[in-house]
Amino acid sequence: MNKLERINHPLKQLPNGDWLWVNIFRLSSGLTGPNVHIQANVHGAELQGNVVIYELINWFKANPFKGSISFIPFANPSAVNQKTGMYTQGRYNPVTGNNWNRNYIDFMSLDEKKSGFSLKNFVKENLESSEEDVRKKFKLELFNICDHYQNYLEQRSAAPEDGHFNLLLQKIASPSDIVLDLHTGPIATRYLYSADYQMESAVHFKIPYVLEIPSEFDGAMDEASFMPWVELSREFKKQGRDFLNKFEAYTVELGSEERISFNEAKLDANCLLNYLKHKGVHDVEIGELPITSSKKSLLKDYKTYYAAKGGLYEFCFAPGEVFKKGDVIAKSLNFKTVIDNESFSNAVSEVIAKEDGVVINHNTSASIASGQTLYQVMENLQTF
Amino acid sequence: MNKLERINHPLKQLPNGDWLWVNIFRLSSGLTGPNVHIQANVHGAELQGNVVIYELINWFKANPFKGSISFIPFANPSAVNQKTGMYTQGRYNPVTGNNWNRNYIDFMSLDEKKSGFSLKNFVKENLESSEEDVRKKFKLELFNICDHYQNYLEQRSAAPEDGHFNLLLQKIASPSDIVLDLHTGPIATRYLYSADYQMESAVHFKIPYVLEIPSEFDGAMDEASFMPWVELSREFKKQGRDFLNKFEAYTVELGSEERISFNEAKLDANCLLNYLKHKGVHDVEIGELPITSSKKSLLKDYKTYYAAKGGLYEFCFAPGEVFKKGDVIAKSLNFKTVIDNESFSNAVSEVIAKEDGVVINHNTSASIASGQTLYQVMENLQTF
Amino acid sequence: MNKLERINHPLKQLPNGDWLWVNIFRLSSGLTGPNVHIQANVHGAELQGNVVIYELINWFKANPFKGSISFIPFANPSAVNQKTGMYTQGRYNPVTGNNWNRNYIDFMSLDEKKSGFSLKNFVKENLESSEEDVRKKFKLELFNICDHYQNYLEQRSAAPEDGHFNLLLQKIASPSDIVLDLHTGPIATRYLYSADYQMESAVHFKIPYVLEIPSEFDGAMDEASFMPWVELSREFKKQGRDFLNKFEAYTVELGSEERISFNEAKLDANCLLNYLKHKGVHDVEIGELPITSSKKSLLKDYKTYYAAKGGLYEFCFAPGEVFKKGDVIAKSLNFKTVIDNESFSNAVSEVIAKEDGVVINHNTSASIASGQTLYQVMENLQTF
Amino acid sequence: MNKLERINHPLKQLPNGDWLWVNIFRLSSGLTGPNVHIQANVHGAELQGNVVIYELINWFKANPFKGSISFIPFANPSAVNQKTGMYTQGRYNPVTGNNWNRNYIDFMSLDEKKSGFSLKNFVKENLESSEEDVRKKFKLELFNICDHYQNYLEQRSAAPEDGHFNLLLQKIASPSDIVLDLHTGPIATRYLYSADYQMESAVHFKIPYVLEIPSEFDGAMDEASFMPWVELSREFKKQGRDFLNKFEAYTVELGSEERISFNEAKLDANCLLNYLKHKGVHDVEIGELPITSSKKSLLKDYKTYYAAKGGLYEFCFAPGEVFKKGDVIAKSLNFKTVIDNESFSNAVSEVIAKEDGVVINHNTSASIASGQTLYQVMENLQTF
Prior knowledge:
4 copies of one chain form a homotetramer.
Chain A: E1 4-13, E2 19-28, E3 35-40, H1 48-62, E4 68-72, H2 77-80, E5 83-84, E6 87-88, H3 112-115, H4 119-125, H5 131-153, H6 161-173, E7 178-185, E8 187-188, E9 190-195, H7 199-202, E10 209-213, H8 221-238, E11 248-256, H9 262-278, E12 295-298, E13 302-306, E14 311-315, E15 322-323, E16 328-333, E17 348-352, E18 357-362, E19 367-368, E20 373-378, E21 382-383
Parallel strand pairs in A: 3-4, 3-7, 7-11, 9-10, 10-12
Antiparallel strand pairs in A: 1-2, 2-4, 5-6, 8-18, 9-11, 12-21, 13-20, 14-16, 14-19, 15-18, 16-17, 18-20
């Protein structure tokens, strides 16, 4: 049986003095292989990943594998513990409004004073190093950048809460070859964010919908994890050498928020295990998997339908359902222009699909003001 | 076609000067018959009643009936418009914490200085009046009490927001013979709150579960509506006359919050129409109704399961599902006592049913701190 | 030096598994004397009491006293740690809306099944006991009632969060002779809630304004603490014996919320020490005290000015300031009826005092909807 | 008397159907002169600007001026009306977390498909146009870009709330020569954000502290307003002509949030009038002005002190007060490491200034978790 150990990081001291903790659960095979980092619940209401981690730990305790694997369930205790009414206020820091998954740091774009690192120099010095050696050294540099930047943040007293939280996760992930950030949508189907350069691996997740994103930084953990490696390759190219970027990072969307399912988590875990097999983490055949041919869209074809007027909305299509241009995708109710028998029919309106698509998620509430989100959909779907 | 008219009450002026409105939609048959008052959405996230009102207006526009009927959809604009994240903060005033359905006024318990009314004197003066006459006069008194109490509330400047809101609805409802307050639970089945003295009528709603509550005041609209009539009967009794209380008021729970369904609303409307037929509002046979034999519990058998520890909970039984003593009704996940392979099994725990019951509702979130609600259930169910 | 010890109660496990704690700091003199219980910060934003506790511990460490004293700073970690924007959401449970200081239990009104206690029988059995003996036994009964009621609450699984929290504080306070619950107002002066029967002691706090409340239960800690003793006296009376109620409990209001001041805390601590000297807890002369002759009002003369219209309000009188009938106490700004040069003067309105009074507190925000609180004031002030 | 007119924009329809409005108050002199746009209260709790607008309208009604002036008090009704407890949740959209002052659009960086505009072509076509002509045409282009981008946003149904709101204000401001965005800090002194190229004008506000920001875009209204003009100059330069950028935009910080003062607003209005005199809007000598020599810092010297530990903090320096390196600027209280007499002194800690500076603002609450803001300060102050 592979040995499970736990590492505890104090994350945040509350005003009354109590602490919130980040707990890392770590399994090492003792064999050479990829370092895998899997975290869940960075957004407070996005819970299912924690159960998937439970199933994965169960699996990795009992099965042979290579390399090491670190799990961080409940990665963001500030968020998961914040309630308004019965709901978890999930997506942003309630003090600052900052989205918990948009404050990671783009290390390669920091100036040297903040990072203590020059990519140009690093590549110059390692133009002749072996790929393996470059990877090893670069991981160490990433770790050091975290420290250096932390010092920069703390120049007046402590670091800001958001910066501290996101940087801690980046630091823990710095020695990794694979980073999986487990999220959910609001009321959503399962889907995957994958950078364009990883699409061949992405198919092994067996997740039905994949959003292909460009290799650019927009503040999220997956981007913050892969961008240094993308930039490393680019810089090697610039200095005349082809360096293969084998690093991969994904945001995995595991259905709807505010709920968990142990049964579904078994299948979700299998999807991740199937991908990890493809990446050489283990050799075990994974049995039950979703019967699916994945479809993908480009990020530019990920569209949002906003409400044109305030009212109550019934969603006529569920997450994962396909609709056609011209379909009634939502019906709304609003009595504001009803003043007599004739105008009564004004109470109900319809929202019509502008193009073919598939519903990825919809609002968690039927009560929606003008300008608030109805649906997020993928269009121009391609099988891959 | 029966004529629909709209009456507008300014409810609340926001700090920027804009107004929130209460709009009443009214149909009068011109024939003698009961006055019916139907309101929805007093709790912000409880939406389905608005759609039921839409279906009912459609029906009453087109069908013959007796008496008059007033509808107040979106009865509480302060609540329905209050968002935190994508969710509607539904149950309480965000400034005061007051539950929007616990601040109605118990008119008969007010001292005369506040109400301008003496029940004892009213009965004494009407000991010889006809029942019809008593009802008519008493409705007028209820209306006057609202005015009198409003003046009391405004003694220093304006009335408090909560008091003003609840009193406005009571005032609008004062001429009614029947009051239906349309609510929903969190994630819930359909059920009905009925005072003990109304149970024979309650069965005509064809709603599967009925909570029989005592004829007492606990702040809700149904209680605030029927208690004056209950007290009126009691006072007549005390002064030696039997006075039949024909007034009825119910809280009707229409499933889960934060969602609407036009299809379900048709069936919900039929349930209400079937009850209203029983009460003489109309003679039309109502076709499609839930195939159900209603079950009831006493309020003392309406029990809450609270979380003994913090964690993520999977609810093993859905609203409306029956469970047995000893059943695992929930499974929870929490890594706090996991420190190695041996303690890993601590991560999952089970919640066991203490008695047989049926799930009425459960928490809207799987993420639950110790002491927060898991389930509300009915026990000791009886067919009636 | 008197010995300080700390006792830790786990209060609440968060969904991620972390705990919030109640920490009690206890000093025992070893001498016979009153047991004193002092808690602070039950409402999340009401902070100054924690600093006063700091000053009091400093004092009690160094000075001779009788009896024992327990301090609970940060008594409500659920509340003090809840932020929305930069502000602390202070007064109510964000899940249920329940005011943290309105859920204490009125033990003497519980039926025997819930409390395991009969006051009538207790008095009957102790008709001949010494006063000292009665007090000792009654404190023990109060402790046992807490346990008994806790079991009742936990009949289905755990107890509800609100009940659990308030009951824990009542249990800790059950052996006390004196209970001081340290609060603040919103933007407020210093004042004191005192039950009518304690007014002679209340004067020794040297706090400028005292609200005299009837010996009745309305859910607060002071009432929950003194009502059992009030009822005990009443029952003795009923059974023919005069029993002197020496128990006292106060809600002490220490200015404005969301702020602390170490300097002011020294003076606040002196006020409390002066009162405790009067009660025989110590003999030390307290030097610096506010130069004040206290004024009191009856609870019925504690009035609230609500906003008649939405707008921005400037408060023309500060907490502690006296105003006269007819004074302009607030000016408001609202452009909603301004449409041209002529109507421009509508933008500003005045709020006029209806009676003489003193400002106890006003809203923390100038941005106020109709029906929200402007001022709370005392009228019919009497020197005492 | 100059004529005041009002223009009403429906901004947002709430789920219940009620509307929130943006009302513009406009005065035109009929004479050639600058178009001035003054808005207030984009952040919900930042109220004082509305009163300043009241005072300015009063002034402009009665005094001769040139050009036209548009006022938008209560510019953001979504924000000003959002309460949690008694406080206004001010800085961000409660659904999305987006800071209301960080979602303006950087028109010049939009690709042509989104803006319908090419700066390069515009300059090419106007290389020979008079400055006055260029300004006139460019304002028209800005207006058209707003429309074009609005259409882009609405490609699936309506535009998102945040985008719609910010774009509406930009569209209203598009014909302006001067834009003043009136804000406040949390608990703050008066200060000004000025782009580097405007510093010579900035001094005429007579506001004590000025933050000199680079001419770059970071999402705020001032930047969104001046950046197109800055880019216009740069492009002219690139194409070989010097084009003088006379456009100016400022964020004016008027003290603390959640409060108003009519007296202070008179002085604030004078500051703005003094600046507008300098810009040729009027010729009237402005009497009472703050006696001040303004100090400035560069944005890089605007520093934040974050809390290193959770606790209650007393702020030892008020906004506007100067401190020295080594000064104790805050004291904190936290009992978590107190377990006995010896450790009691751990309860209080000090925060020490790292460099000389002046307090610009501090947290609105004394109750602060680790990583949350204590102070924002200016360092390296220079008189200018």
